[in-house]
Amino acid sequence: NSTVCEGSNISFTTSATGTSPIHYQGYGDNGIIAGDTGVQYQISNVDTSDEGNYYCKATNLCGSDSTNIATLYVNTSPTISYQSSGSAICEGRSTTFSITALGTSPITYQWYFAGNSINGATNNTYTLNSVTTSDAGNYYCKATNTCGNAQSNNINLTVNQSPSITTQPNNATKCVG
User: Fold this and answer.
1) Do 84 and 55 touch, CB atoms closer than 8 A?
2) CA Rg, the chain, in Å?
3) 3-state SS, residue 166
4) Is 62 exposed, middle or buried (0-12, 13-18, 19+ CB in 10 A)?
5) 122-155: per-residue pLDDT in tens?
6) CA dihedral 140, 145, 147, 153 (to 10 degrees)
7) Please, what sign has the CA dihedral across residues 113, 116, 118, 122?
8) pLDDT at 71
9) Which of 37, 58, 165, 173 is deepest in the core (most CB within 10 A)?
10) pLDDT tens for residues 93-125?
């Protein structure tokens, strides 16, 4: 049995002893594999459609023997199927970003802000509570598994501030006219 990442190469090798000539024929879930008549069957650029069971039959003038079934499992690298859009919120409020990643489990997550990883932000969602203007900027997430990683697009956060009076009017006493 073998587990490989989509896009890689795999070979199944068989050997048999007995009176020559020995003829080989490979089989898969759908029966005879056309052209697989050697001791080695190679699949280049493995795809999920290649996942399944394989075996080989060796035949000579005295009979035949078959190998055990070898199962091929194909893992896929993550792809981002959904991500939050950017948002503009008022200072002091909270916001949550999220992504959905497809691919072979387990998938791990890491969120980034301004290009730097955020300590402890390792879920497919990330919540900011009571945001300040220093939280404004671009966020993104990387989803990773044994076959690779995928990065979300930037999610822009704009933080708006409530008005704050910076100049107070002065009291004034004036003559009429």
Assistant:
1) no
2) 31
3) coil
4) exposed
5) 999 999 999 999 999 999 999 999 999 999 999 9
6) -10
7) positive
8) 97
9) 58
10) 999 999 999 999 999 999 999 999 999 999 999
Helix (H/G/I), strand (E/B), else coil: 177: coil
pLDDT of 30-57, one tens digit each? 999 999 999 999 999 999 999 999 999 9
Distance of CA 170 to the CA centre of its chain: 62
Q: Which residues pair with 5 in a beta bridge?
A: 75
Give CA–CA dist 76/74, Å, rounded: 7
Q: Is the dihedral of CA 34, 40, 43, 48 positive or negative?
A: positive
pLDDT of residue 6: 96
Confidence class for position 177, pLDDT limits 50, 70, 90:
confident
**Residue 89, CB-side half-sphere exposure with 13 Å CA sphere:** 21
Q: How far apart are CA 46 and CA 32, in angstroms?
A: 18
What are the structure tokens assigned to 82, written together?
A: 């959904």
Measured CA to CA, the distance from residue 36 to residue 38 in angstroms comes to 6
79, two tokens: 């792809």
Check residue 164 and give its pLDDT. 87
Nearest to 83 by CA among 101, 96, 99, 95: 99
CB contact burial 33-52 (16+ within 10 A = b; e otherwise): eeebeeeebebeebeeebbe
